[in-house]
Design brief:
Elements lengths: L1 H15 L3 H32 L6 E4 L5 E6 H4 L9 H16 L5 E6 L6 H21 L7 E5 L12 H7 L1 E3 L1
Parallel strand pairs: 3-4
Antiparallel strand pairs: 1-2, 2-5, 3-5
Helix pairs in contact: 1-2, 2-4, 4-5
């Protein structure tokens, strides 16, 4: 709401002339829009957290006011595979149900790997994993035009790839 008010006030001043009246109306409108977006995200986050409780999937709100779901490799894929496990499918069913309740949200599916194997191999595997998750969500009525996908390979580790435990944390898919 605060960010919306600031942007609205600046917009009201820029387009309506440099007076407090236009800035005030712009701030009021921007604050209302910002509050509505914030409430939408709050409800979606709460629904996602309740839906995914006990699945091992982390749900976090970012500074950019987006939700970040981290699906660890231990529940999503087998080693060196892009085939979704039964646990992943169950969790993604819950994700799809919530996403279908919030049709204005867009989803970026990002695959990540550890540093074992060549850069090219890991890039391809991460893309296949992201594509597999996006396809699964699409098959469960999440509109495909809301989904984008990318593979990051080993470029964005969550933690340094120093041992098997840390490598396992880096093999993940984020939405």
């Amino acid at each position: 709401a605060g960010i919306g008010a600031v942007v609205g006030g600046a917009t009201g001043t820029a387009f309506g002339g440099n007076d407090l009246h236009n800035a005030g109306w712009g701030a009021l409108a921007g604050g209302a829009v910002g509050a509505a977006v914030g409430a939408y995200m709050d409800h979606q986050q709460e629904a996602m957290q309740q839906s995914l409780q006990g699945t091992g999937i982390e749900v976090q709100r970012t500074a950019e006011n987006t939700l970040n779901l981290t699906m660890p490799n231990s529940i999503t894929f087998g080693f060196n595979s892009s085939q979704l496990t039964a646990d992943a499918q169950t969790a993604l069913n819950s994700v799809a149900n919530v996403l279908n309740q919030y049709p204005d949200s867009t989803i970026t599916v990002t695959g990540h790997t550890d540093d074992i194997g060549s850069d090219a191999y890991n890039q391809n595997l991460s893309q296949q994993r992201a594509a597999g998750v996006a396809a699964y969500l699409s098959q469960h009525n999440v509109a495909f035009n809301r989904l984008s996908q990318q593979g990051m390979g080993e470029k964005m580790p969550k933690v340094p790839n120093t041992d098997e435990n840390s490598r396992a944390q880096n093999r993940r898919v984020e939405l």
